[in-house]
Amino acid sequence: MQLIVQNGYLFERRVRVNAPITLLRDGIVVLHGSEVTDSEPALGTRFHDSRLLVGGGGN
Fold first, then answer.
1. Kind and range of the H or E element at 17?
2. Roughly how many angstroms between the first and final C-alpha of the chain, as a whole number?
3. Domain ranges of the chain
4. Taking CA atoms, which of 29, 36, 38, 55 is between 20 and 30 Å from 48?
5. pTM above 0.85, yes or no
6. Alpha-carbon distance values, 33 to 9, 51, 58 (Å)
7. Which long-range contacts (CB under 8 A, 24 or more apart) does 12-16 make?
8. Which residues make Cβ contacts (< 8 Å) with residue 23, sequence separation at least 6?
């Protein structure tokens, strides 16, 4: 599962300060438009710009 969150700049700053280094190892990817829908269809209809925590979630 991937974690996608809207409102990039403030979220990204807070995550970089507070998250464990293992969560940030793979980085934070900026997604726009159809990239959001491709990564998480349920959120793609609600948000145009999002951030993806590549190491977030857990399958």
1. helix 8-18
2. 6
3. 3-53
4. 55
5. no
6. 17, 12, 24
7. 12/51, 15/53
8. 15, 53, 55, 56
